Structures are given as C-alpha cells and as structure tokens.
C-alpha cells in the first residue's frame, strides 16, 4: 500500500483516481509548516503540491520513503530539484493543464490595466461616480511577449485577434513558429524599446531574474504598460516602482511576487497604477481539475513502477523515442548489474556503446538504466534512473557514450565496458532477440548466449578436459541444480569461461570449493533480482 500526502489545496475531482486506487491511501493535510511536514513526511511515498508548499532539502531528508513529488501546475521553483535528484526522488509537473487559464488571466490583467477596471470598480462601490478613468485601446498597439512557450504563445494568439502587433522573444523561438503564430521575432532590447505592452511568460531562472530592471525601464516607451503573470522576480519590483514614479510606466499588473504573500507595506499594494491578484493565474475550475488529473495519473504510474512522463528532473524524451527504447531498459539494467557483479575494483569509467537500431535514437534514458544497473551493486535501492548519472558524476565515474556500427550480426547491440581503477577492463554486450528477449552475447572476449535471469555462476578457467564434469559433480553433491550451461573459449586449451544457470543461489562455501578445483581461476555468483 502506498501513501500519498496532498499538502496544498488540489482539486478533489482531479485526484479522484488516486483516491479510488486500491493500492493508494491519500491524505490531505494543507497549510503545514516545514517542521510539521518534516515530522510526518517519512510515512509517505508520494507528495502532491501546488506552489504554497516549499519542498525543502530538510523535508526530503526526512522523507525516507518519498519516491515522487507531483506538482499540480507548471512552476517547480518551490521544490529543491537538486536535493530531489540527489535522493532519486522523481519530480513531475502538469505542464499543459493550466496554459489557457493562465493565458486568459494575463489577458484579463492586460485589459484591466488598459481600462483601469479594478481602480474604477473600487471607486464606484465606495460611492464615487468617477468618470475620469481614461483608458487606451489594445488595437494597433505593440505587445512584447518575453517567453514564447505554452502560455506566451497563447497570449500572442489572442493579442493578434485584438489587432495588436506582437514582438516575441524566446531563445527557442524559430522564424517558422513565429510566423505560424503571427509574431515578429525580436530581441529583448527591441521589445523593451518598442512595446506599448509587455507580458512576461518565462520561468524564473538566474538568466530571467530581473530581466526587466533599471537599464530596460530607462529605454522604454513613455506610457507603456507591463504584466507579470509568470514568476515574481522576472521584473525587478523596486525598479518598476521607480519607473512608474518617473512617468515611464503608465501601469503594471502583477499576479506573482518576489515574496508571496507580499508584506503589508509592499509598494505594489499602495500604488494606484499597479493592479494585483494573489497568484490566481492557474485558478479556474478547469485548470485545477486538469493539472490534478495529470499529476495523479503520473504519480500512480511512478508508484507502480510503470512508464511515466513529465519528469522535471530528467531530460524530456519524445514519446516515439521512448516507445522504441522501452524494451531495452531491462536489458540495459541487467547488463549493468552483470558487469558490476563481475568487477571487483572501484570503477573509474563506464563506456557504453549502442549499435544497430539503437544508434539512431536518443539513448540517454537507456544509459540511465545501464548506470543504475552498474551502481546498484553498491547503492542498492538508493540508486534509480533519476539519480544514476548524478551519483556516477559525484563519484568521479566518467560515463562515455558512443554509437558504433559493429552490430556483430545482431539488429541491435548494447555494449558496456567497465574500466576499473587498477586498469582492468570488462566488456559485456547484450541484445534483444526477437521472441527470446534479453540475451548477453559477449563477456570480455568470449561470445556467449545467456539469459540474464535468476541465479548464475560465472567461472573462468583454463580449457582442459574434465572440468565441466568436476563442476557438475561438486554442484550436484551440494544440491545446486544446473538448469543451463554456456561455455566460451577463443582457442582450444586456452582461457575459457563457463556460465551456469542454477535453480538457487550457491552457498559461499560451494563457490570457494569450486575455485579449489584444478584449472579453475574464479567462481562467482551473479544474481538478477
Ligand atoms: N501565475 C500563475 O498562476 C502561473 C504561472 N505560470 C508560470 O508561467 C511561466 C510560463 O509557463 P509556460 O508557458 O507553461 O512554460 P513554458 O516552459 O512552456 O514556457 C516558458 C518559456 O520561457 C522561455 N525562456 C526561458 N528563458 C528565457 C529567457 N531568458 N528569455 C526569454 N524566454 C525564456 C523558454 O524557452 C520557454 O519557451 C512559468 O514561469 C510558470 O511557472 C504558469 C502557470 C500558472
Ligand atoms: O503552475 C504554476 O506555475 C503556477 O504558478 C500555479 O500555481 P498554483 O498551483 O496556483 O499555486
């Protein structure tokens, strides 16, 4: 049974599938402090949040069973991603569910700004019939959109319908896409100098922090208006107040703040030219249901060890590529486990080579499985596909990936070479055989055909008559039944290997006795859990 904690107000309807799942217990406890969360988090396998809960390293440290943090929304700046990755906690978000809702909020803010709606409303209900509020039209104005992702693009599309000219900046905005949306590609400087309205739609990163600050305000068109429904800090709040005082900016609309909620004396709350909402961008019935459904579905998959999407602390992979790679994950992990069990030295370098079909796709998710397999010998369940590359890096293990053409007659081939500190090297290759599944087809220089499952005994020996018989007799005497056997050698009478599939693990004394047999150099148990 898995336990999931919902620590922010998330749509009940949206999480219904989690609540209904027979293997999941969902508990809703909102408004907890960091210390309160630290106290209870060890009980839970999953945590669902919006933007209120700050998921700190301290909380993750205490969350010994935590496997997934689901963010019912886009921005994950309230989650310490580095700490999650280090601990192998998968962080997922729901990037698509609130796009339109947030876009509509930004648009509503822009219109409210243009027509002073909040200010006029406040006066009217106070009993003052003030008709001095003189607005501006959006038509024929230039809108600058910084961040042309999901929300920015939707804002641009709607602005087009209002007869605005749109300048867009985004490091990933191509001319082709811009043309499709009806946006002119511009630089930040172009936008800052020419826009009548600016709306920001980027995440908060070191690069976007204060991307609109004093130097930008200084060159803006006098009387421009600015909207932030993205993240507090993208626009420098103090520089904005100055720009309003100097008459450069005619008005600003903010849904997000550098510190949320803002202090009571925050200048935005006392400036008639600034309109504010309390981070309501994503707050519609539709968006809240959408994001909760999306995130619940992925949390279910993760807890049940099924394929999932939208992991924030793993690079994204196209579904078509994922479908192609999926069948290889188990093979990759098993080759890694096999290699690690045969290697008795600290690993310095892991060379991974993909040939055949696999050489044509982005194989990085598969590499994560292989590295997980290699590291699991020492890290056990502490390593997973989220943190495997990170753990290799912090242990100074160099991972080198190549794509070769030598498939050795197979349609696909995954080769893993472990280079140890003392200079020894072990090479393993595996493939997926149609109808037969995962096979290990090479160990060091020896061609083999092994199904990497259950319990194996790996023996290296000198190729002399009678050895196989001796091994069989010794194992038989000790009640270790041999189910299959593979022998590999390069030359008659030379170095050779034997890999036995046995029905159960051989006791250590039996392995020791095997190494005492003539011509046997090494006998080692290999276990695939
Ligand atoms: N106010 C609210 O309640 C909500 C706020 N948001 C926030 O809105 C923002 C945008 O969300 P989405 O459009 O869904 O994300 P997205 O990832 O689709 O778009 C963000 C875009 O910003 C671009 N970008 C990154 N650095 C940039 C830079 N230096 N200059 C220009 N562009 C840059 C990226 O290339 C990307 O295209 C996020 O910060 C998100 O957290 C999202 C939903 C609700
Ligand atoms: O999805 C986002 O990035 C948001 O900012 C929405 O935040 P919320 O879920 O409303 O706390």
From TrEMBL:
<keyword id="KW-0718">Serine biosynthesis</keyword>
<dbReference type="InterPro" id="IPR006139">
    <property type="entry name" value="D-isomer_2_OHA_DH_cat_dom"/>
</dbReference>
<dbReference type="GO" id="GO:0051287">
    <property type="term" value="F:NAD binding"/>
</dbReference>
<dbReference type="InterPro" id="IPR029009">
    <property type="entry name" value="ASB_dom_sf"/>
</dbReference>
<comment type="pathway">
    <text>Amino-acid biosynthesis; L-serine biosynthesis; L-serine from 3-phospho-D-glycerate: step 1/3.</text>
</comment>
<keyword id="KW-0520">NAD</keyword>
<protein>
    <recommendedName>
        <fullName>D-3-phosphoglycerate dehydrogenase</fullName>
        <ecNumber>1.1.1.95</ecNumber>
    </recommendedName>
</protein>
<dbReference type="InterPro" id="IPR045626">
    <property type="entry name" value="PGDH_ASB_dom"/>
</dbReference>
<dbReference type="Pfam" id="PF00389">
    <property type="entry name" value="2-Hacid_dh"/>
</dbReference>
<keyword id="KW-0560">Oxidoreductase</keyword>
<dbReference type="Pfam" id="PF01842">
    <property type="entry name" value="ACT"/>
</dbReference>
<dbReference type="Pfam" id="PF02826">
    <property type="entry name" value="2-Hacid_dh_C"/>
</dbReference>
<dbReference type="GO" id="GO:0004617">
    <property type="term" value="F:phosphoglycerate dehydrogenase activity"/>
</dbReference>
<feature type="domain" description="ACT">
    <location>
        <begin position="456"/>
        <end position="529"/>
    </location>
</feature>
<comment type="similarity">
    <text>Belongs to the D-isomer specific 2-hydroxyacid dehydrogenase family.</text>
</comment>
<keyword id="KW-0028">Amino-acid biosynthesis</keyword>
<dbReference type="InterPro" id="IPR002912">
    <property type="entry name" value="ACT_dom"/>
</dbReference>
<dbReference type="InterPro" id="IPR045865">
    <property type="entry name" value="ACT-like_dom_sf"/>
</dbReference>
<dbReference type="InterPro" id="IPR029752">
    <property type="entry name" value="D-isomer_DH_CS1"/>
</dbReference>
<dbReference type="InterPro" id="IPR006236">
    <property type="entry name" value="PGDH"/>
</dbReference>
<dbReference type="InterPro" id="IPR006140">
    <property type="entry name" value="D-isomer_DH_NAD-bd"/>
</dbReference>
<dbReference type="InterPro" id="IPR029753">
    <property type="entry name" value="D-isomer_DH_CS"/>
</dbReference>
<dbReference type="InterPro" id="IPR050857">
    <property type="entry name" value="D-2-hydroxyacid_DH"/>
</dbReference>
<dbReference type="InterPro" id="IPR036291">
    <property type="entry name" value="NAD(P)-bd_dom_sf"/>
</dbReference>
<dbReference type="GO" id="GO:0006564">
    <property type="term" value="P:L-serine biosynthetic process"/>
</dbReference>
<dbReference type="Pfam" id="PF19304">
    <property type="entry name" value="PGDH_inter"/>
</dbReference>
<comment type="function">
    <text>Catalyzes the reversible oxidation of 3-phospho-D-glycerate to 3-phosphonooxypyruvate, the first step of the phosphorylated L-serine biosynthesis pathway. Also catalyzes the reversible oxidation of 2-hydroxyglutarate to 2-oxoglutarate.</text>
</comment>
């Amino acid at each position: 049974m898995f336990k999931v904690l919902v620590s922010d107000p998330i749509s009940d309807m949206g999480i219904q599938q989690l609540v209904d799942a027979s293997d999941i217990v969902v508990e809703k406890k909102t408004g907890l402090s960091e210390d309160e969360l630290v106290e209870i988090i060890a009980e839970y396998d999953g945590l669902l949040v919006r933007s209120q809960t700050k998921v700190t390293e301290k909380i993750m440290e205490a969350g010994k069973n935590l496997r997934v943090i689901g963010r019912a929304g886009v921005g994950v700046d309230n989650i310490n991603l580095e700490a999650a990755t280090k601990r192998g906690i998968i962080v997922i978000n729901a990037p698509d569910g609130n796009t339109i809702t947030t876009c509509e909020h930004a648009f509503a803010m822009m219109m409210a700004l243009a027509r002073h709606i909040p200010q006029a409303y406040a006066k009217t209900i106070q009993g003052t019939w003030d008709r001095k509020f003189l607005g501006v039209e959006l038509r024929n104005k230039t809108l600058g959109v910084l961040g042309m992702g999901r929300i920015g693009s939707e804002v641009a599309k709607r602005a087009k319908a209002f007869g605005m000219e749109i300048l867009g900046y985004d490091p990933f905005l191509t001319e082709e896409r811009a043309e499709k949306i009806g946006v002119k590609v511009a630089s930040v400087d172009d936008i800052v100098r020419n826009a009548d309205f600016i709306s920001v739609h980027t995440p908060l990163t070191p690069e976007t922090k204060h991307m609109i600050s004093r130097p930008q305000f200084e060159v803006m068109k006098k009387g421009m208006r600015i909207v932030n429904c993205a993240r507090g800090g993208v626009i420098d709040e103090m520089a904005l107040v100055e720009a309003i005082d100097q008459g450069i900016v005619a008005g600003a609309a903010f849904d997000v703040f550098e510190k949320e909620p803002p202090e009571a004396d925050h200048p935005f709350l006392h400036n008639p030219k600034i309109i504010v909402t309390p981070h309501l961008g994503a707050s519609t019935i539709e968006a809240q249901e959408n994001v909760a459904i999306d995130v619940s579905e992925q949390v279910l998959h993760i807890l049940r060890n099924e394929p999932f999407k939208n992991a924030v602390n793993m690079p994204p992979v196209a579904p078509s590529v994922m479908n192609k790679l999926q069948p290889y994950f188990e093979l990759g992990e098993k080759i890694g486990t096999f290699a690690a069990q045969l290697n008795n030295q600290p690993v310095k370098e892991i060379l991974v080579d993909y040939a055949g079909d696999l050489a044509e796709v982005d194989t990085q998710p598969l590499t994560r499985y292989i590295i997980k397999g290699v590291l699991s010998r020492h890290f056990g369940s502490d390593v997973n596909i989220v943190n495997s590359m990170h753990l290799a890096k912090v242990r100074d293990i160099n991972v080198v990936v190549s794509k070769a053409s030598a498939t050795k007659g197979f349609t696909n081939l995954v080769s893993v070479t472990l280079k140890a500190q003392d200079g020894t090297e072990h090479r393993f290759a595996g493939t997926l055989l149609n109808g037969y599944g995962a096979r290990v087809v090479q160990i060091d220089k020896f061609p083999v055909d092994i199904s990497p499952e259950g319990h194996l005994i790996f023996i290296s020996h000198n190729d002399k008559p009678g050895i196989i018989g001796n091994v069989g007799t010794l194992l038989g005497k000790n009640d270790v039944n041999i189910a299959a056997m593979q022998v590999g050698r390069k030359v008659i009478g030379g170095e050779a290997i034997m890999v036995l599939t046995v029905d159960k693990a051989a006791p250590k004394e039996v392995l020791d006795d095997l190494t005492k047999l003539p011509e046997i150099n090494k006998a080692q148990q290999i276990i695939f859990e």
